[in-house]
Amino acid sequence: MKQASWSYAEEFVTEDEVLAAARGRAAEVGVVPIGSGGGSALRFLASVLEARAVVEIGTGTGVSGLWLLRGMRGDGVLTTVDIETEHQRLARQSFTEAGVASQRVRTISGAALDVLPRLTDGHYDLVFCDGDKREYSAYLAEALRLLRPGGVVAFDNALWHDRVADPAQRDEETVAIRELGRTVAEHDDLVSLLLPVGDGLLVAKKVWTPDAD
Question: What is the pTM of this model?
Fold first, then answer.
């Protein structure tokens, strides 16, 4: 795909002033949020799933959270986890500017692998992961427990700045993301897809099993 076509697709769904302000806050504190193409994909997934309960790993300043909330049901609740309390403060500012009711967002400060085990099994429609890349495989294990049958897990940075596709790149984060991709692709209980939006969005649906009902 030529750069012009990629850029056209990436910007196909435009962002408003609220998202632009959230991105501005991200730049100020050194956070790199999901791109507009990935964000619109998250909104689409949340909408198709008619998501009522979503987990987000990596709150940032609220960019991905805004996209998710805009696709979720009106009574849906986003549970978002981040180790940086200042980032979550800025995210809450973004949500307030967007007119999101406070009861629709539950912010939890802490390390994801400490927080996720405390969340309810089989309760969530969508889990979005944008935290420590070295922990992606552990996030997958938690997501499989948290998701209802038919739910979806999504991982940002699945192409990791063009490093994942280059076998010569062997740094810890690249290897972790590459191994995650193989695990997801080979998992019997997942239907997966790698979308070349932004820095790559790996998505997988938890399939229904005979005992799911």
Answer: 0.95
